[in-house]
Structure formats: structure tokens, C-alpha cells
Design goal:
Number of helices: 11
Number of domains: 2
Strand content: 15-25%
CATH topology of the largest domain: Rossmann fold
Radius of gyration: 20 Å
Number of strands: 15
Bound molecules: 5-S-methyl-1-O-phosphono-5-thio-D-ribulose
CATH superfamily of the largest domain: Translation initiation factor eif-2b, domain 2
Largest sheet: 7 strands, mixed
Helix content: 40-55%
Strand order of the largest sheet: 6-5-4-7-10-14-15
Structural class: alpha/beta
Low-confidence stretches: none
Order of helices and strands: EEEHHHHHEHHEHEHEEEHEHEEEEE
Mean pLDDT: 97
Distance between the termini: 31 Å
Length: about 325
């Protein structure tokens, strides 16, 4: 991992997370003691970012399983599924969450008895986290090869260690290029409404001493047209078989602007974000969050009372706009 902070750490009977809603002002750690608290942490974005959500959900299920007292195997499995469904219901868009739940379901169901199931569920959760860390390490390595000395790179949302529990996806690539001594410049979008760019990406880039400038989302077109931007690189929440990619709201606009200005547009994502069942992005469920996140900033109302606001948290970029996918197994074009 890159940062000297812990995104998600399993403590044996609790889950330690950094509260991402309090960053950058406060570096606060929370110890979550049951699966309801983990579900709340995911819903409230204390832990966020597709791979980190998957890892947290997996350990959330482990916590839920630790509290099941029944010695009857059938009853144990019934209660297991109630726990797993609560975690699966927290956020709808990131594939990693459902990948984690499906893997733990398979581990629970394959076990011949309760003790074997408990052990297999914990082992699978730990494996998922280890795989995410390793995948993001490889993504950072492979992606950094694409970046040239002197490049300016635009990125969106937060895709660093905070979002992955590992090295980061898009931001991992950027940090690795900087570590290799490439003299890069980053343009980081603030990412309204919750400002994952302004709060979290700026915090992580600052910690890594990567030269960057923060811009508002609406400045992206200006910089892509007027400034020399060599590459846009973002993460992903779910990728369909044809390459259609759901990511933080605003990604689609960036991809279109990048295409209009002939700037390569890359997605960096581990294989856990690819949805093997989904032919196109049309069926990706887009999370609709509270309009208060749009009408308010820092808890203060900025819009008049009594108005309607929309708040889709993600959008889908058609695969045709994506120059390449940086994954742990290589850089490829889809389909
Ligand atoms: C490696 S993280 C990729 C995505 O999960 C990230 O870009 C993103 O959209 C996160 O959204 P968030 O709502 O903050 O969970």
C-alpha cells in the first residue's frame, strides 16, 4: 500500500476503517463491531470506492457470522443469508460489492458444517482483500508505463488507496509514475456533490508529494481544450462486457470531452469490477442519492428551500470512448 493510513483493516473481531467523510480535516478511525455498523459505514460513505466497498462488505459478513449462535446447519445458513443480503443491499452500482458477497455465499454453501463454513467465510474475505491489494499493485505498475516524463494527467473522483484498500487504481498509476521519477502534473476534479476529488484525492496526492492542481468539474472542458492534457484516467464501479463503464457522475462528460480534444481516456480497474454477466451498460443500476447532497454543501443549504434536485451518483460511459482498460492482467480494449 502506498499511504501511511489504513483504509480497511480486519482486527479479528472488529473492522477498523478510516472515516472518509471526515477527511481531510480529521483523520478519524472507527472500529465497527457488527455487520449493521459495516452496512451503515458503506451506505454513509465512511468507506467508499468500489474495491474498498467489496472488502468492507466481506468483513461485514464475517462479523455477522461471528454473531450467529445457532448450531443447526440449516438455520445457520438461513441467518448467514440474512446477513449477506443486508450487506448486498447497501449500494447498488459497484460490481465489487456483489462479487464479494457471491464469493462468500459460495464459500458458506460449499462447507459441510458450521465450523468449516465460519473458517471458509473468513478465509475468503481475507483472500478478497489480498487479491485487491495485489491487483492494484499490478495495475499501478502496468499503468505507470503508459505515462511519459512531463505528462499532464486529468483524473476524477478518488481512486487511491482510500478507495481500494490497496495501491489505488487510476491514482495508483499516477502515484507510481511519480515514484518512478516521472515529472508529471495532475489535474484533479473536485467531484461534486461530495467532493471526493477535493477532499480525498487532494489529500492522498499531497501526502505523496505529487504535483497537482485542483479544478472544479466544470473546468474540465476548458483544460482539455486549452491546456496540454496528455491523458485522462479514472477508475470504475462496474464494467459491462462491451466496455460500457459506470463510474462517478461526471466521468461520461469527461470521456466525451477527451474524445473531442483527442486526449486518450483510460479506465484503471481490477477484474473484480468487470461484470461477466452484463452484456452492456444499459442495465447497470445507478445509485440515486439524497438530493440534500446537491442542495447543501458542508451541511449548509446553498439552494433555495422547496426546490427539486437530482443526484445520480454514477453515469455510464459507452465503451467506444475508452482508449483502454488498465487491469492487473494487462492493458486492453473492449470488446
Ligand atoms: C478505485 S475506485 C473507482 C470508483 O469506485 C470511484 O471512481 C468512484 O466512483 C467512487 O464513488 P463513491 O461514491 O465515492 O464510492
Amino acid at each position: 500500500m502506498t499511504g501511511n493510513y489504513k483504509t480497511v483493516e480486519w482486527l479479528g473481531d472488529r473492522l477498523l476503517i478510516i472515516d472518509q467523510t471526515r477527511l481531510p480535516q480529521h483523520e478519524t478511525y472507527l472500529e465497527l463491531a457488527d455487520h449493521h455498523q459495516v452496512a451503515e459505514a458503506i451506505r454513509s460513505l465512511w468507506v467508499r470506492g468500489a474495491p474498498a466497498i467489496g472488502v468492507a462488505a466481506a468483513y461485514g459478513i464475517v462479523l455477522g457470522v461471528q454473531k450467529i449462535e445457532s448450531r443447526d446447519h440449516k438455520e445457520f445458513l438461513k441467518q448467514y443469508h440474512t446477513v449477506a443480503e443486508e450487506l448486498a443491499g447497501t449500494r447498488p452500482t459497484a460490481r465489487n460489492l456483489f462479487m464479494a458477497v457471491e464469493r462468500l455465499n459460495a464459500a458458506a454453501e460449499a462447507a459441510a458444517d458450521i465450523l468449516t463454513a465460519r473458517n471458509a467465510i473468513l478465509a475468503e474475505a481475507e483472500k478478497i482483500q489480498a487479491e485487491e491489494i495485489e491487483a492494484t499493485r499490478k495495475i499501478a505498475e502496468l499503468g505507470a508505463d503508459l505515462i511519459n516524463d512531463g505528462d499532464t494527467i486529468m483524473t476524477h473522483c478518488n481512486t487511491g488507496p482510500l478507495a481500494t484498500t490497496g495501491y489505488g487504481t487510476a491514482l495508483g498509476v499516477i502515484i507510481e509514475a511519480h515514484r518512478r521519477g516521472k515529472r508529471i502534473q495532475v489535474l484533479a476534479t473536485e467531484t461534486r456533490p461530495l467532493c471526493q476529488g477535493a477532499r480525498l484525492t487532494a489529500w492522498e496526492l499531497k501526502k505523496e508529494h505529487v504535483p497537482f492542481r485542483l479544478i472544479t468539474d466544470s473546468m474540465a472542458g476548458y483544460f482539455l481544450k486549452e491546456a496540454r492534457v496528455d491523458m485522462v484516467i479514472t477508475g470504475a464501479d462496474r464494467i459491462a462486457k462491451n466496455g460500457d463503464t459506470a463510474n462517478k457522475i461526471g466521468t461520461y462528460g469527461l470521456a466525451v470531452l477527451a474524445a473531442a480534444n483527442k486526449v486518450p481516456f483510460y479506465i484503471a480497474a481490477p477484474s473484480s469490477t468487470f461484470d461477466p454477466e452484463l452484456p452492456t451498460g444499459d442495465d447497470i443500476i445507478i445509485e440515486e442519492r439524497s438530493p440534500d447532497e446537491v442542495t447543501h454543501q458542508n451541511g449548509k443549504r446553498v439552494a433555495p428551500e422547496g426546490i427539486e434536485a437530482c443526484n445520480p451518483a454514477f453515469d455510464v460511459t459507452p465503451g467506444g470512448y475508452i482508449t483502454g482498460f488498465i487491469t492487473e492482467t494487462g492493458i486492453r480494449k473492449l470488446p
